[in-house]
Amino acid sequence: MKRPIHLSHDFLAEVLDGQSVAVDATMGNGHDTLFLARLAKQVYAFDIQEQALTKTRQRLKEAGLDNVRLILAGHEELSRYVPRFKAAIFNLGYLPSADKSVITQPQTTLQALDQVCQGLEVGGRAAVMIYQGHAGGDRERDAVLDFVRQLPQQAFTVMLYKTLNQINHPPFLVMIEKLKEEKDQNG
Ligand SMILES: C[S@@+](CC[C@H](N)C(=O)[O-])C[C@H]1O[C@@H](n2cnc3c(N)ncnc32)[C@H](O)[C@@H]1O
To answer: What residues form the membrane-spanning segments (predicted)?
Structure first.
Protein backbone atom coordinates (compact mmCIF):
# COMPACT_ATOMS: atom_id res chain seq x y z
CA MET A 1 0.00 0.00 0.00
CA LYS A 2 1.19 3.50 -0.71
CA ARG A 3 2.46 5.62 2.12
CA PRO A 4 0.73 9.00 2.49
CA ILE A 5 3.80 10.90 1.26
CA HIS A 6 3.91 8.79 -1.90
CA LEU A 7 0.24 9.26 -2.54
CA SER A 8 0.71 13.03 -2.14
CA HIS A 9 3.16 12.97 -5.05
CA ASP A 10 0.99 10.75 -7.24
CA PHE A 11 -2.02 12.96 -6.53
CA LEU A 12 -0.18 16.07 -7.74
CA ALA A 13 1.62 14.37 -10.63
CA GLU A 14 -1.73 13.63 -12.24
CA VAL A 15 -2.38 17.34 -12.85
CA LEU A 16 1.14 18.61 -13.56
CA ASP A 17 2.71 19.01 -16.98
CA GLY A 18 5.39 21.08 -18.67
CA GLN A 19 3.12 24.15 -18.73
CA SER A 20 2.25 24.12 -15.03
CA VAL A 21 3.22 26.34 -12.15
CA ALA A 22 3.58 24.58 -8.78
CA VAL A 23 4.19 25.63 -5.18
CA ASP A 24 6.16 23.95 -2.40
CA ALA A 25 4.89 25.72 0.71
CA THR A 26 7.41 24.01 3.03
CA MET A 27 10.70 23.53 1.19
CA GLY A 28 12.75 21.89 3.96
CA ASN A 29 15.41 19.63 2.47
CA GLY A 30 13.92 20.06 -0.98
CA HIS A 31 12.58 16.57 -1.68
CA ASP A 32 9.16 17.86 -2.67
CA THR A 33 10.64 20.83 -4.52
CA LEU A 34 12.74 18.49 -6.64
CA PHE A 35 9.74 16.28 -7.33
CA LEU A 36 7.70 19.28 -8.50
CA ALA A 37 10.56 20.76 -10.53
CA ARG A 38 10.86 17.55 -12.55
CA LEU A 39 7.21 17.81 -13.66
CA ALA A 40 6.30 21.50 -13.77
CA LYS A 41 7.43 24.42 -15.86
CA GLN A 42 8.05 26.66 -12.85
CA VAL A 43 8.12 26.03 -9.10
CA TYR A 44 7.95 28.52 -6.23
CA ALA A 45 9.32 27.10 -2.98
CA PHE A 46 9.02 28.75 0.43
CA ASP A 47 10.77 28.31 3.76
CA ILE A 48 11.66 30.55 6.68
CA GLN A 49 15.04 28.87 7.31
CA GLU A 50 18.09 29.77 5.23
CA GLN A 51 19.31 26.20 5.70
CA ALA A 52 16.37 24.92 3.67
CA LEU A 53 17.28 27.13 0.72
CA THR A 54 20.93 26.04 0.86
CA LYS A 55 20.00 22.34 0.90
CA THR A 56 17.40 22.69 -1.81
CA ARG A 57 19.62 24.82 -4.06
CA GLN A 58 22.26 22.11 -3.89
CA ARG A 59 19.76 19.34 -4.60
CA LEU A 60 18.41 21.15 -7.65
CA LYS A 61 21.89 21.91 -8.92
CA GLU A 62 22.84 18.23 -8.74
CA ALA A 63 19.70 17.39 -10.71
CA GLY A 64 20.48 20.07 -13.30
CA LEU A 65 17.19 21.92 -12.74
CA ASP A 66 16.89 25.70 -12.85
CA ASN A 67 13.12 26.20 -12.94
CA VAL A 68 12.64 26.90 -9.20
CA ARG A 69 12.40 30.20 -7.39
CA LEU A 70 13.61 29.66 -3.81
CA ILE A 71 11.94 32.15 -1.50
CA LEU A 72 13.10 32.91 2.04
CA ALA A 73 9.67 33.86 3.37
CA GLY A 74 6.75 32.30 5.17
CA HIS A 75 4.13 30.57 3.08
CA GLU A 76 1.61 33.02 4.51
CA GLU A 77 3.09 35.49 1.99
CA LEU A 78 2.55 33.11 -0.90
CA SER A 79 0.02 35.18 -2.84
CA ARG A 80 2.49 38.07 -3.08
CA TYR A 81 4.82 35.87 -5.10
CA VAL A 82 2.60 33.52 -7.07
CA PRO A 83 -1.03 34.35 -7.84
CA ARG A 84 -2.01 31.29 -9.91
CA PHE A 85 -0.79 27.69 -9.89
CA LYS A 86 -1.83 24.14 -10.67
CA ALA A 87 -0.53 22.33 -7.61
CA ALA A 88 0.75 22.96 -4.10
CA ILE A 89 2.26 20.79 -1.40
CA PHE A 90 2.67 21.26 2.34
CA ASN A 91 4.77 19.04 4.58
CA LEU A 92 3.95 20.47 7.98
CA GLY A 93 5.94 20.21 11.19
CA TYR A 94 9.70 20.59 11.61
CA LEU A 95 12.75 19.98 9.47
CA PRO A 96 14.28 16.73 10.86
CA SER A 97 17.89 17.82 10.33
CA ALA A 98 17.45 21.28 11.87
CA ASP A 99 16.17 23.06 14.97
CA LYS A 100 13.08 21.05 15.94
CA SER A 101 11.56 24.03 17.70
CA VAL A 102 11.01 25.73 14.33
CA ILE A 103 7.65 24.28 13.35
CA THR A 104 4.84 25.32 11.11
CA GLN A 105 2.16 27.16 13.10
CA PRO A 106 -1.61 26.80 12.84
CA GLN A 107 -2.30 30.48 12.20
CA THR A 108 0.18 30.94 9.36
CA THR A 109 -0.58 27.49 7.94
CA LEU A 110 -4.24 28.44 7.67
CA GLN A 111 -3.38 31.77 6.06
CA ALA A 112 -1.30 29.91 3.49
CA LEU A 113 -3.96 27.26 2.93
CA ASP A 114 -6.54 29.96 2.33
CA GLN A 115 -4.27 31.60 -0.25
CA VAL A 116 -3.65 28.22 -1.87
CA CYS A 117 -7.37 27.56 -2.18
CA GLN A 118 -7.80 30.92 -3.87
CA GLY A 119 -4.72 30.64 -6.08
CA LEU A 120 -5.32 27.12 -7.39
CA GLU A 121 -6.49 26.91 -10.97
CA VAL A 122 -9.76 25.09 -11.49
CA GLY A 123 -8.76 21.43 -11.71
CA GLY A 124 -5.70 22.17 -9.57
CA ARG A 125 -4.77 20.22 -6.46
CA ALA A 126 -3.14 20.70 -3.07
CA ALA A 127 -1.62 18.00 -0.87
CA VAL A 128 -1.12 18.59 2.85
CA MET A 129 0.98 16.14 4.87
CA ILE A 130 0.07 16.46 8.52
CA TYR A 131 2.43 15.42 11.32
CA GLN A 132 0.72 15.17 14.68
CA GLY A 133 3.41 13.58 16.87
CA HIS A 134 5.40 16.66 17.94
CA ALA A 135 4.38 19.25 20.52
CA GLY A 136 1.88 21.56 18.84
CA GLY A 137 1.23 19.09 16.02
CA ASP A 138 -2.19 18.18 17.40
CA ARG A 139 -3.30 21.83 17.42
CA GLU A 140 -2.18 22.31 13.85
CA ARG A 141 -3.86 19.05 12.79
CA ASP A 142 -7.16 20.17 14.31
CA ALA A 143 -6.90 23.63 12.77
CA VAL A 144 -6.24 22.23 9.28
CA LEU A 145 -9.02 19.64 9.53
CA ASP A 146 -11.41 22.33 10.72
CA PHE A 147 -10.45 24.58 7.82
CA VAL A 148 -10.77 21.97 5.08
CA ARG A 149 -14.08 20.62 6.42
CA GLN A 150 -15.54 24.08 5.90
CA LEU A 151 -14.48 24.43 2.27
CA PRO A 152 -17.66 24.63 0.16
CA GLN A 153 -18.29 21.31 -1.56
CA GLN A 154 -19.35 23.02 -4.79
CA ALA A 155 -15.89 24.51 -5.11
CA PHE A 156 -13.59 21.87 -3.55
CA THR A 157 -13.38 18.16 -2.97
CA VAL A 158 -11.40 17.21 0.13
CA MET A 159 -10.17 13.70 0.90
CA LEU A 160 -8.25 12.12 3.77
CA TYR A 161 -5.72 9.27 3.54
CA LYS A 162 -4.82 7.86 6.94
CA THR A 163 -3.92 4.56 8.57
CA LEU A 164 -6.55 3.51 11.08
CA ASN A 165 -4.71 0.79 13.00
CA GLN A 166 -1.30 2.32 13.63
CA ILE A 167 -0.17 3.13 17.16
CA ASN A 168 1.18 6.54 18.16
CA HIS A 169 0.49 9.44 15.82
CA PRO A 170 1.17 8.52 12.20
CA PRO A 171 1.37 11.29 9.62
CA PHE A 172 -1.53 11.50 7.23
CA LEU A 173 -2.52 13.22 4.02
CA VAL A 174 -5.25 15.72 3.18
CA MET A 175 -5.97 16.11 -0.53
CA ILE A 176 -7.81 19.09 -1.97
CA GLU A 177 -9.05 19.46 -5.52
CA LYS A 178 -10.53 22.70 -6.83
CA LEU A 179 -13.70 22.23 -8.85
CA LYS A 180 -14.64 25.83 -9.50
CA GLU A 181 -13.93 29.34 -8.28
CA GLU A 182 -15.58 29.95 -4.91
CA LYS A 183 -17.27 33.15 -6.06
CA ASP A 184 -18.96 31.17 -8.87
CA GLN A 185 -20.18 28.42 -6.61
CA ASN A 186 -23.84 29.30 -6.95
CA GLY A 187 -23.71 30.00 -10.63
C1 LIG B 1 8.60 18.87 7.48
S2 LIG B 1 9.66 20.16 6.91
C3 LIG B 1 9.45 20.12 5.15
C4 LIG B 1 10.12 18.97 4.45
C5 LIG B 1 10.32 19.19 2.99
N6 LIG B 1 9.09 19.26 2.25
C7 LIG B 1 11.29 18.21 2.35
O8 LIG B 1 10.97 17.67 1.27
O9 LIG B 1 12.37 18.01 2.90
C10 LIG B 1 8.76 21.63 7.34
C11 LIG B 1 9.43 22.92 6.90
O12 LIG B 1 8.52 23.99 7.05
C13 LIG B 1 9.28 25.14 7.33
N14 LIG B 1 8.41 26.22 7.83
C15 LIG B 1 8.03 26.50 9.09
N16 LIG B 1 7.21 27.57 9.10
C17 LIG B 1 7.08 27.98 7.81
C18 LIG B 1 6.38 29.03 7.17
N19 LIG B 1 5.63 29.89 7.85
N20 LIG B 1 6.49 29.15 5.83
C21 LIG B 1 7.25 28.29 5.10
N22 LIG B 1 7.94 27.26 5.66
C23 LIG B 1 7.85 27.11 7.00
C24 LIG B 1 10.33 24.67 8.29
O25 LIG B 1 11.41 25.56 8.32
C26 LIG B 1 10.68 23.29 7.69
O27 LIG B 1 11.78 23.38 6.84
So the answer is: none
Tens-digit pLDDT profile for residues 95-114:
888 788 889 999 999 999 99
Q: How many angstroms does the Cα of residue 93 sit away from the middle of ligand 1?
A: 7
Report how far ligand 1's centroid is from the alpha carbon of 109 (Å): 10
* 46 close to ligand 1 (CB < 6 Angstrom): yes
Other CB atoms within 10 A of residue 21 CB: 22
If you measure from the C-alpha of residue 18 to the centroid of ligand 1, how many angstroms do you get, rounded to a whole number?
Answer: 25
SS (H, E, C) 10-37: HHHHCCCCCCCEEEECCCCCCHHHHHHH
Give the structural domain span for 86: 4-184
Which domain CATH number covers 9? 3.40.50.150
pLDDT the model gives residue 96:
82
Give the number of domains in the chain: 1
